[in-house]
Amino acid sequence: QVQLVESGGGLVQAGGSLRLSCAASGRTFSPSTMGWFRQAPGKEREFVAAINWSLGSTYHADSVKGRFATSRDNAKNTVYLQMNSLKPEDTAVYYCAADHLYVPRRETFSDTARYDYWGQGTQVTVSS
Fold first, then answer.
1. If 69 and its partner were Cys, which of 13, 20, 41, 82 is the partner (CB 3.0–4.6 Å)?
2. What is the pLDDT of residue 29?
3. Cα 67 from chain centre
4. Is 3:26 a contact under the CB 8 Å cutoff?
5. How far apart are CA 39 and CA 124, in angstroms?
6. Buried b (16+ CB within 10 A) or exposed e, 56-70
7. CB neighbour class for 20 (10 Å; exposed up to 12, middle 13-18, buried from 19)
8. Tens digit of pLDDT for each residue in 75-123?
9. 3-state secondary structure 56-113
10. Who contacts 82 (Cβ-Cβ below 8 Å, separation ≥6)?
């Protein structure tokens, strides 16, 4: 089994920054892609960013391009989401997710159905 634990959320003023971390553990942890999603109250979970675990290539939603950056540390089994120039509309619970390298998927990296494992989420609140 794989466990994902997010950290780094909190309360920040608009224009500020936060860095989220997602630490993975478990003998079967072997993703092809890790993703970041967020869910605001009353809204569906939406794609934020994804990273190819081996290549390090990243993808970001249009709403966060130029403000958020994704990176990973393979040795630590950790993925990061650096969030800059935060806006009140970024307020949400942020989740990280991982798929499994050896499970073929049709879903793209922005589809929640692609991912097998999810963290518990971390709250990000941006005040105006």
1. 82
2. 86
3. 14
4. yes
5. 10
6. eeebbbeebeeebbb
7. buried
8. 999 999 999 999 999 999 999 999 988 888 889 999 999 999 999 999 9
9. CCEEECCCCCCCEEEEEEHHHCEEEEEECCCCHHHCEEEEEEECCCCCCCCCCCCCHH
10. 17, 19, 68, 69, 70, 71
Tell me how far CA of residue 103 lies from CA of 5, 33, 115, in angstroms.
22, 11, 10
Structural contact between residues 87 and 126, judged by C-beta atoms closer than 8 angstroms: yes
117 CB contacts (<8 Å, ≥6 apart)? 2, 3, 4, 24, 97, 98, 99, 100
CB 111 within 8 A of CB 127: no
| Residue 104, C-beta contacts closer than 8 angstroms, at least 6 positions apart | none
What per-residue confidence (pLDDT) applies to 75?
93
Q: Is the Cβ–Cβ distance between 24 and 116 less than 8 Å?
A: no
Tokens of 65: 């391009």
